[in-house]
Automatic annotation (TrEMBL):
InterPro entries: ADH-like_C (IPR013149), ADH-like_N (IPR013154), ADH_Zn_CS (IPR002328), GroES-like_sf (IPR011032), NAD(P)-bd_dom_sf (IPR036291). This is Alcohol dehydrogenase. Residues 178-303 form the Alcohol dehydrogenase-like C-terminal domain. Keywords: Metal-binding, Oxidoreductase, Zinc. One of its GO terms (molecular function) is zinc ion binding. Pfam families: ADH_N, ADH_zinc_N. Its EC number is 1.1.1.-.
Length: 346
């Protein structure tokens, strides 16, 4: 079969690799029908995730068709259409039993495209298949369901839920890439009074406006001044960091009001300064997190009921064997306007 393989920092190749086989009785083999690329894949390609070894197949999100299951698998069968989650869960350990699947102690967590071969391939082996896949709702579009593999549960859980977004809040999202836009979309479910998007790219601010932001802060504008004017000098109730660089994290701590929440969603590769000399007396709560995907069933129900418009994130579409071209487009969003790409089996 063909797959996109990591060959070390800065090197990737779409090439022939062995088709995966069942290794544990809890595994499933899934034919990949629709797959996407994540910003984390670009971090891996840049060499920022040293746990990923050369030869690893990229990818941790997919919609596909079950081809084969192990003897212990009970919830899915060959022929079923499934969402392959970015998080694998053993379902038995201390963390899994409390819904913290991202911290799984039983061999799960973020595995696909990280510690085992991933989804950017014609087929993928899914560990712990019963607790790491979800049935595709009847009538739901593949592209919409695909957005529930990672960006929507990540933004909802680590940004909106950790940030305690409530009706009437002023919510600022710093970074209007796919994660930030998903945070705007899911924050809107709680009826905030204002949704503020901060980004340097006009195309992404345009996307933020389409997805519900009513205040846009772009290049050359002062986010602190604009948020202060919007809140009578108080500051935002919730500031969601969706970039993953020191400057945006520190900006969020300046934008939030006393007693407010900073929810960090971005993946940081460098240290950020925590200004406790300013924050300690302001009762600010700062949260971090890896997605657990406990919310995926809820989001799927909302999608099936027409309450969540998820396919609007996809801006570019490719055939599966156009993986190299898709990476080129996705890695240059300021030039291409790419938010999420979708690759389909032909």
């Amino acid at each position: 079969m063909k797959a996109l393989v990591y060959d070390g920092p800065g090197r990737r190749a779409w090439r022939e690799v062995p088709k995966p086989e069942l290794e544990q009785d809890s595994d499933a083999i899934v034919r990949v029908d629709t797959v996407t690329i994540c910003g984390t894949d670009l971090h891996i390609l840049n060499g920022d995730v040293p746990e990923v070894e050369p030869g690893r197949v990229f990818g941790h999100e997919a919609v596909g068709t079950v081809e084969q299951v192990g003897s212990a698998v009970r919830m899915i069968r060959p022929g079923d259409r499934v969402l392959v989650s970015c998080i694998s869960a053993c379902g038995r350990c201390r963390y899994c039993r409390t819904g913290a699947f991202g911290q799984c102690l039983g061999g799960g967590g973020w595995m696909l495209g990280h510690l085992v071969d991933g989804t950017q391939a014609e087929y993928v082996r899914v560990p712990f298949a019963d607790t790491s896949t979800y049935g595709v709702p009847n009538g739901a579009a593949d592209e919409a369901v695909l957005m529930l593999a990672d960006i929507l549960p990540t933004s909802y859980e680590v940004g909106v839920r950790n940030g305690r977004v409530s009706p009437g809040d002023v919510v600022v999202v710093v970074g209007a890439g796919p994660i930030g836009l998903a945070a705007l979309t899911t924050a809107a479910l709680f009826s905030p009074s204002h949704l503020v998007a901060v980004d340097l790219a006009p195309t992404r601010l345009d996307a933020a406006k389409r997805l519900g932001a009513d205040v846009l802060v772009g290049p050359g504008e002062d986010a602190e001044t604009m948020v202060a004017e919007l809140t009578d000098g108080l500051g935002a109730d919730v500031a969601i960091e969706a970039v993953g660089v020191p400057a945006t994290f520190e900006l969020c701590t300046r934008l939030v009001r006393p007693g407010g929440h900073v929810a960090n969603v971005g993946v940081h590769g460098k240290p950020a300064t925590l200004h406790l000399e300013d924050l300690w007396s302001r009762n600010v709560t700062i949260t971090t997190g890896l997605v657990d995907t406990y919310s995926t069933p809820t989001l799927l129900r909302m999608l099936a009921a027409g309450r969540l418009d998820a396919d609007k994130f996809v801006t570019h579409r490719f055939d599966l064997d156009e993986m190299e071209q898709a990476y080129d487009v996705f890695s240059r969003p300021q030039e291409t306007g790419a938010l999420k790409v979708a690759l389909h089996r032909t």
